[in-house]
Amino acid sequence: MSAYALKAYRSTDLHSRCEQSSKRDLVIMMYDGAIDAIRLAREYALRQEKRAASASSSRAMTILTALRETLDLQGGGPVAAHLNDFYQFLIRRLVRAGATGSTDDLADCQDLLSQVREAWAVINPAVAGEVNRRMFVVYS
To answer: Does the pTM of the predicted model rise above 0.85?
Structure first.
């Protein structure tokens, strides 16, 4: 399969999964994307491939920024506020990793985000609707 065809397939598959997913599942998918981008950034940094590491870190920061933008800070209470702080913290660490070349910062970001991702994954889908209503801006 050509690289172009593979990219088109992945794009179509992702679009299809997004349309059929709950908000909880979309958050988990975004976490997976950010975790994967951080993992790649770390692998590239270990191989001294600075341009590729920077691109992967930028992708992770874009996803984290998108996660921040979905939070309803007025109605979401302390959980939304803590998630906002957490995402900002991760973005700062990723920027620092890019400036210093620290693979330790990347490893920490990957580990912390993986732990939060696992917490989201164990949320019971029956109560996920309430979590979504209370923490995220709902666009109609």
So the answer is: no
